[in-house]
Amino acid sequence: MTILILGSGGREHTFAWKIAQSPLCKSLYVAPGNSGTAEIAQNVNIGVTDFSAIKTLVLDKQIDMVVVGPEDPLVQGVHDFFLNDQALKHISVIGPQQAAAELEGSKEFAKEFMMRHNIPTAAYQSFNASNVEDGYAFLETLNPPYVLKADGLAAGKGVLILNDLNEAKAELKNMLVDAKFGNASSKVVIEEFLDGIELSCFVLTDGKNYKILPTAKDYKRIGEGDTGLNTGGMGAVSPVPFATPEFLNKIEERIVKPTVAGLQKDNLPYKGFIFIGLIKVGDDPKVIEYNVRMGDPETEVVLPRLKNDLVEIFQAISNETLHTIDIEIDERAATTVMLVSGGYPESYEKGKEITGIEAITDSIPFHAGAIVKDEKVVTSGGRVMAITSYGNTYQEAIKKSYQNIEKLHFDKMYYRKDIGFDL
Ligand SMILES: Nc1ncnc2c1ncn2[C@@H]1O[C@H](COP(=O)(O)OP(=O)(O)O)[C@@H](O)[C@H]1O
Ligand SMILES: [Mg+2]
């Protein structure tokens, strides 16, 4: 098969790494890709939401399957674009259709879905500019901290957690009336605060059947001890040690089953990954959010533990025969540590040469914000490279990642030295 991956991060390099191992994959393209995907696939400089350029590429290269990495093209309906085009409709697309992608595209839609299907989540109400006063009144009924979520996609910046009631009211007004997050905050979901430890669960579905992938925990804050600004993710660990079989069973029964059944009942066509953000409150899992694609850097620890041929799984998703696949998971733990540009997530410099990659022996360097320029690998983004390792325990794996990072260098390189500290 000829396969196209859309995206350019560590997630997409990991997909490319895994797909390239499949005997079913004859030819692999990544759009736009990075320096890591350039080594194992052919990069094509096309944006992930440029549907007409994607169409031209797909027809030109006779692509059979498109694997969608990020959420934007899914929320903009890339799968529907293929299905509605006579020349493209036979091509497999891994990722939900637009109606189902609303689970990530609209926080309110996701909340209504969970309420309808009795899926445990925080209590909430949603507001818009016309009833901002009701929003203030609702805030007064809650205990701090106050959780305010912009309804639409806001690149991971649309959630505010505030301790002070007046500040929460002011921010609510900022979001609804002054368009703090543009159109994304024309609606705001206000939620009950859930106190507990977070983890993520990853599910594959063909719309009818599902398979559960390993859990992972990511580290979002820039600073050690989970302090400072939010980032796209600074590292991840899989499996999550506190996710016991009993707890995983609760996740499957109370959350995964009703989610997949709910998709069918509501006619939300879904062939792809469901990323369920969870919080463990006492001994019970509650859903924080759905994402309609894999996480980054969670992919960098989840896919390396999957022993199956990923292309075979994708074919089964496409043919709605996912029930025939037995998922096999590597018993070892996997960890990843993200190397970032100094200054990230605020302003940072690009174009710094990355050296030492070839010296890495028993870790896998997944490239993220890195490109090839003048035959050198240079930084091109905030999150630059994710160093993944295996170990019999996550402690052993993380040690390996840190040992290998010692061999890598770029100007103003930064990383967290405490990934897994809270487990
Ligand atoms: N109800 C809640 N209670 C406590 N913390 C929350 C709640 N909702 C979100 N959070 C925190 O805010 C983060 C971002 O929220 P999330 O819904 O995942 O939005 P996004 O990933 O789209 O920015 C979560 O990872 C979690 O740490
Ligand atoms: Mg989230």
UniProtKB/TrEMBL annotation:
It comes from the Bacteria. The keyword Nucleotide-binding applies. Residues 111-319 form the ATP-grasp domain. Pathway: Purine metabolism; IMP biosynthesis via de novo pathway; N(1)-(5-phospho-D-ribosyl)glycinamide from 5-phospho-alpha-D-ribose 1-diphosphate: step 2/2. Its EC number is 6.3.4.13. The keyword Transmembrane does not apply. Pfam families: GARS_A (PF01071), GARS_C (PF02843), GARS_N (PF02844). It catalyses: 5-phospho-beta-D-ribosylamine + glycine + ATP = N(1)-(5-phospho-beta-D-ribosyl)glycinamide + ADP + phosphate + H(+). One of its GO terms (molecular function) is ligase activity. InterPro entries: ATP-grasp, ATP_grasp_subdomain_1, PreATP-grasp_dom_sf, PRibGlycinamid_synth_ATP-grasp, PRibGlycinamide_synth, PRibGlycinamide_synth_C-dom, PRibGlycinamide_synth_C_sf, PRibGlycinamide_synth_N. Keywords: ATP-binding, Ligase, Nucleotide-binding, Purine biosynthesis. PANTHER family: PHOSPHORIBOSYLAMINE--GLYCINE LIGASE, PHOSPHORIBOSYLAMINE--GLYCINE LIGASE, CHLOROPLASTIC. Belongs to the GARS family. HAMAP family: GARS (MF_00138). This is Phosphoribosylamine--glycine ligase. It comes from Meridianimaribacter flavus. The lineage of its organism: Bacteria, Pseudomonadati, Bacteroidota, Flavobacteriia, Flavobacteriales.
